[in-house]
Amino acid sequence: MSLRDLPPVDALAAQVDAPRAVALAAARAVLAQRREELLGGAAGDADLGERARDWARAAVAPSLRHVLNATGVIVHTNLGRAPLGREAREAVAQAARGYSNLELDLDSGTRGSRHAHVEALLRELTGAEAALAVNNGAGAALLAAAALAGPGREVVVSRGQLVEIGGGFRVPDVIAQAGARLVEVGTTNRTRLDDYRAALRASGDRVGAILRAHQSNFRQLGFVEDVPVEALCELGVPVIDDVGSGALGRVYDEPPVRRSVAAGAALVCFSGDKLLGGPQAGLLVGRADAVELARRHPLARALRIDKLSLAALEATLRAHRDGGDVPVLAMLEGDGLEARARALAERIAGAELVQAVAKVGGGALPLLELPGPAVALPDPAEALAAALRRGDPPLIGRIEDGRLLLDPRTLADDEVEPAAAAIRAARG
Ligand SMILES: *Cc1c(COP(=O)(O)O)cnc(C)c1O
């Protein structure tokens, strides 16, 4: 093939089944590439039609795609954290379809609050007087600090809680961004009630709040002491308790939201898409006066939650209340795990069932190990993992001891067959 044999753009585009603009762009790109190759001395034939179709397929494929998570990491931040339950998915589809009463009070016909859709549920589920939903957990903590402390005021924090959660969320930075001044008390491993008392005496009425931050993604062992939320709430200063993952019920040793509310915390902050199992969101629940300060703060507008997330959040909260579908909790329990593992192993040639350990992820319960069956594959692990990432849909497993493991804990029942098909396709 020589330069003179290259087909015209139109002729090549005609071989591509895609919108005309895409087909033309594909043809131009492939012809330009082939011209370079020929000028560089390439010989032989090339299937330009096939190349153009590949180019067009890549161009029209969405960037954000459905991925099969066989990592066994339940709240996987890189894979979008919590998968939504059935009711929440339906609620998102409904809210996306047309208009909604997002900020309209249908009884009076006057302007309503978007928070009204979740406030009663959050109060019921946490025992709080009032509640507010914002864009994410980091936003909730920032808003809480800004609303209760802010410029010229102080926020008292134990040195054991000056933590980094990941993704650039560092407690001292959040306080600085809220405009407040950080007052550190105690030491890295031990902070006592008297440390707080001394700081409050020294600061007097400059103190806006005491902030507790959950050590989400690490634990301290040994010579360690901190002050329970109940004791902090008796010091007479508003307490912000950033409990992180948002355990509404008992979820191993995660701090339950209800406990901090019952203790009298002014604001309890947590994420919507960790152990709550809902959409990305940040929740603030607590005393009515504190929630009102947060609601009226200018940051609340900047951090406001969007309607699709709000729809998913309302449905997720209902699912918690009414025993509906919360996949994160079902995966923690290992519901249907054995059956999925067997079904997956049966569908993949050379697969072997092994005992493995899944993790919660998402900065929650870092030490918790969830034992269960997984499917080990005999193929060269790195090469297969790479082929699976390029598949459609992509399948992500985890490599252990040189073998690729598929952990069915984080697959839905109806993802077993697609996962097996992905392996077959990747093996070619
Ligand atoms: C995860 C976490 C955050 C941040 O929440 P996002 O929803 O990820 O923004 C803040 N504080 C704590 C203690 C956390 O665990």
Low-confidence stretches: none
- Radius of gyration from CA coordinates: 27 Å
Strand content: 15-25%
CATH class of the largest domain: Alpha Beta
Number of strands: 15
Terminus-to-terminus distance: 29 Å
Q: Decide which structural class fits the backbone.
A: alpha/beta
Give the name of the CATH architecture of the largest domain: 3-Layer(aba) Sandwich
Shape designation: globular
Give me the CATH superfamily of the largest domain: Type I PLP-dependent aspartate aminotransferase-like (Major domain)
Bound molecules: pyridoxal-5'-phosphate
Tally of domains: 3
As for the CATH topology of the largest domain, it is Aspartate Aminotransferase, domain 2
Estimate percent helicity.
40-55%
Sequence of strands across the biggest β-sheet: 2-10-9-8-7-3-6
Mean pLDDT: 95
The main β sheet shows up as: 7 strands, mixed
Q: What is the count of helical runs?
A: 17
Outline the secondary-structure elements:
Blueprint: H1 9-13, H2 20-39, H3 48-60, E1 68-69, H4 86-97, H5 116-126, E2 130-134, H6 137-148, E3 154-158, E4 164-166, E5 169-170, H7 171-177, E6 181-185, H8 193-203, E7 207-213, H9 229-233, E8 239-244, H10 257-263, E9 267-271, E10 282-286, H11 288-296, H12 298-302, H13 307-322, H14 327-333, H15 337-347, E11 352-358, E12 370-377, H16 381-389, E13 395-396, E14 398-400, E15 403-406, H17 416-427
Parallel strand pairs: 1-13, 3-6, 3-7, 7-8, 8-9
Antiparallel strand pairs: 2-10, 4-5, 9-10, 11-12, 12-15, 14-15
Helix pairs in contact: 2-3, 4-13, 5-13, 6-11, 15-17
